[in-house]
């Protein structure tokens, strides 16, 4: 299974970005999809997750601003990020978890300038 994350970039505070994670080699159906991020000098943290049943949960710091979604036809899932703040800066990783293990994408850099 390979995950290709994209959509990161440089954005001003208050702006928006949409991250994509395209999966190949396996269907995303029946798997848990998530986004993590790692800010400089900080531990990696869970940002958002969507369960096999479609239930979502978010880090408290992004709740109300970020939305995780998925498209089984495109075999891709997304992270819509609005009202970005400088604290959202970091490398964002997408993950896919299923019965055969966990898979990670390569990460995409998000930089929010204040």
What are its keywords?
114 residues, mainly beta, seven-stranded mixed β-sheet, four-stranded antiparallel β-sheet, 11 strands, 56% strand
Give a structural overview.
The protein is an all-beta fold. Helix content is 0%, strand content 56%. It is built from no helices and eleven strands. The strands form two sheets. Strands 2, 4, 5, 6, 9, 10 and 11 form a seven-stranded mixed beta sheet that branches. A four-stranded antiparallel beta sheet has the order 1-3-8-7, with no helix packed on it. β7 and β8 form a beta hairpin. The protein is globular and about 40 Å long. It starts with a strand and ends with a strand. The model has no long low-confidence stretch (mean pLDDT 96).
Distance between the termini: 37 Å
Low-confidence stretches: none
The helix-strand sequence is EEEEEEEEEEE
Largest sheet: 7 strands, mixed
Total strand segments:
11
Q: How would you state the average pLDDT, rounded? A: 96
Q: How much is the radius of gyration in Å?
A: 13 Å
Quote the beta fraction: over 45%
Break the fold down into its secondary structure elements and pairings.
Layout: E1 2-6, E2 9-12, E3 17-24, E4 32-38, E5 45-50, E6 56-58, E7 66-71, E8 76-81, E9 90-98, E10 101-104, E11 108-113
Structure at a glance:
This protein is an all-beta fold. It has strands spanning 2-6, 9-12, 17-24, 32-38, 45-50, 56-58, 66-71, 76-81, 90-98, 101-104, 108-113.
């Amino acid at each position: 299974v390979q995950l290709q994350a994209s959509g990161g970039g440089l954005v001003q505070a208050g702006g928006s970005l949409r991250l994509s994670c395209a999966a190949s080699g396996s269907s995303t159906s029946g798997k848990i999809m998530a986004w993590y991020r790692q800010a400089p000098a900080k531990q990696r943290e869970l940002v958002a997750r969507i369960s096999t049943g479609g239930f979502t949960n978010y880090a408290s710091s992004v709740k109300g601003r970020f939305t995780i979604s998925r498209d089984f036809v495109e075999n891709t899932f997304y992270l819509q990020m609005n009202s970005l703040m400088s604290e959202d800066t970091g490398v964002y990783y997408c993950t896919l978890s299923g019965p055969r293990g966990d898979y990670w994408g390569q990460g995409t850099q998000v930089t929010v300038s204040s």
